[in-house]
Q: What sequence folds into this?
């Protein structure tokens, strides 16, 4: 079966903070826009493996530290402990919520999302290798 061809004015590779913003802006300017992403959900490394998960875990550490030193603020607690599984669940909820927000922005602005890898095939042709 021959691969399907679609015509886009702009194709953005990667749905990180730069990619999804660029794709949305191109679509807002009236350009037919596609966003190619290798991962199942948009957001890139920052959202799924970098900045956002790290900040979520850092927030948990800050809450833990504040709880351990609560007496300074007039708060007494008999025992404070880290629940690692619960922390990872919290981190996952934060990441999922933000990824759904990016998906919604892309849809509302008419950006076609394609899961796969992209490359320039020639000076005027772009090839999308579908799948991940």
A:
């Amino acid at each position: 079966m021959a691969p399907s061809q679609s015509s886009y004015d702009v194709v953005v590779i990667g749905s990180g903070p730069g990619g999804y913003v660029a794709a949305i802006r191109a679509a807002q300017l009236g350009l037919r826009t596609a966003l190619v992403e290798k991962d199942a959900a948009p957001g890139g490394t920052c959202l799924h493996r970098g900045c956002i998960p790290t900040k979520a875990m850092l927030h948990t550490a800050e809450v833990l530290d504040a709880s351990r030193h609560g007496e300074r603020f007039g708060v007494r607690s008999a025992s404070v402990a880290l629940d690692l599984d619960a922390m990872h669940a919290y981190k996952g909820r934060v990441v999922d919520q933000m990824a759904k927000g990016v998906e919604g922005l892309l849809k509302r602005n008419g950006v076609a999302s394609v899961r796969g890898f992209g490359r320039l095939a020639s000076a005027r042709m772009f090839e999308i290798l579908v799948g991940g």
